[in-house]
Design goal:
This protein has about 625 residues and is α+β, with helices and mostly antiparallel strands. The chain folds into 3 domains: about 60-75 and about 270-300, no CATH class; about 85-255, Biosynthetic peptidoglycan transglycosylase-like (Penicillin binding protein transpeptidase fold); about 310-600, DD-peptidase/beta-lactamase superfamily (Beta-lactamase). Helices cover about 45% and strands about 10% of the residues. The chain has helices at about 1-15, 20-45, 90-100, 115-125, 135-145, 150-170, 170-180, 190-200, 210-215, 230-245, 250-255, 275-285, 305-320, 370-380, 410-420, 420-430, 435-445, 465-475, 500-515, 570-585, 605, 620-625; strands at about 60-65, 70-75, 80, 190, 295-300, 330-335, 340-345, 385, 410, 480, 495, 530-535, 540-545, 550-555. The strands form 5 sheets. The protein has a 5-stranded antiparallel sheet, with helices on both faces. β1 and β2 form a beta hairpin. The chain is elongated, with a radius of gyration of 36 Å. The N and C termini lie far apart (about 115 Å).
Amino acid sequence: MILETAKTWLVAAWTRTGGFVRARPRLIAGVGALALAAVAIFIWVGSSLPLSRALEPLPNRAVILLDAQGKPFARRGAYKEAPVVVADLPAYVPGAFVAIEDRRFYRHLGVDLKGTARAAWTNFRAHRTVQGGSTITQQLAKNAFLAPERSLRRKGQEAMIALWLELRLSKDEILSRYLSSIYFGDGVYGLGAASRHYFGKPPETLSIGEAAMLAGMVKAPVDLDPVDHPKAAADRARLVLDAMVDTKTITQAQADAASRVSVKAARADLPVGGYFADWISPQVKAAFDGPGFGEVQVATTLDSRLQRIVERAAARELAANPKARAGQVAVVAMRPDGRVVAMVGGTNYRRTPFNRAVQARRQPGSAFKLFVYLAALRDGANPDMMVVGAPITIGGWTPSNHEGGGGRDLTLRQAFAQSNNIIAARIYQTAGGPAVARAARDLGVTSPIPEDDATVALGTAETTLLELTSAYAAVASGRMPVTPYGRPRAVPISDKPLEPFAREALMDMMGAVVEEGTGRAARLGQRAYGKTGTTQDYRDALFVGFTGDLVVGVWVGNDDHSPTNHVMGGGLPARIWRDVMADGLKAGLVARDRAPVPRLSPQPDVEDVEAGPRRDHLPRWLRRILGL
């Protein structure tokens, strides 16, 4: 009644004014112009579509990381093989996808209005999404040309592109592109990749049951993964087989015979992450950046045997010390030339992939004294030189030793072994902040180091465990700086030698740390060299050192910088370091000690310091300390 009244009123109004008669030509012209514009836009958009996009490789090819023994240990990136051609496949392979995804594929023009209406009605009655109305052509348009988005605008674009694809390509070409680009879970794109990934064969040799299982995955690739969810995948495959029978793609007897499918998972089930894998990935990506089909295998320096030793040692010691209240651990193991062979960035990668060995910048504590003493050695000091242990104040800052108070005079060797803070501050003041920062830079530390802050002597400048371990590797190798690397190098990076006298002196003092100083828990059956580090309120505890041909750095602490329960570098970290080295020696992965480094003889003009040596023969480093 209301519609009839409105219609009568509109006709009367237009008749009285003659508007309808006058407007008809303009209305027709306007409609025609809009139609022409729509056709022009349709042609312009369609002609600009890169129709081959679905046939192109992924932007970055999949990478398989190999350890030093040539065994795969991680996979990075998605996997796609060369496009498939429908004509080369058994008829039941594309038939399986058509039967379950778009039965009217060969009868519609890209958009199936009947199928869309049926899906909408079914979903309305179920009060949830039960069926999808998208055709195979629309799915191709969505996957190949549009960004992920759920909106009416997106559906309109999808329909327009689908219509254009139907005008430009044959049905088999559309289906070939669809099968070549669709996602099959586990980082696998395209039927060729899925066939090899799940069944270890090319798509041309797929059985009916295998084709049905792959076609069934399209609906939910993750939840219907036949490796992780075999029952769900098998149930879905049964539905696909029934649909293939309904569409007369196969017979009922063939469906019954194909009901049991064995998934072989020919590609190794490798983790996509890991602390070492995450660290090395940017280097790998830079070398193998660009599109490509299939996978590329990349050799790395990781020694999986040492990696297992490091992981076990860290987990064992943390579990044995629950009262330590140290929630996290990081370990870096490298050869003296910087070749990283093992890395642990935390207690559990799946729970927390943040890499504390590479990404976390923490105070190194007394482990930083390596650079302070190197600056002193370069200034003329030697391990047997006596240094005043009385309290000192620098710019309003008065350092103290762990046991409190001042202390007696010590040799450099004794002060380094006992990690004496007062003497370290005195040496820093004498050598100068720029000289200490330069020593750290020379050994490979790239983190910012203040040159006018005396507290740096006790390790307040933040750095990473990877940097710190590399610096100690420079002492082990006698070359500086040492740059850590995770891919085999064809040509060594140019460097320069660490001053022989300074190196021998540092090794002498680092050996004293392990034999008679704060790092006694790290003692082995052979000569070992290292340094402990503990920060204020026991927030960080470190031990970094080397023996044979392996350099290892260990850190323990908490992510929120909360204090541990009095964990010191000479405790839990030193024991983890010892376990790694001991197990590595037992497994033949750490070299037995070479000839021991002899203790340096004292300088003739320093040996008699207390007897009153000639002032002009004293090193300028000692003369400044004594105020001469």
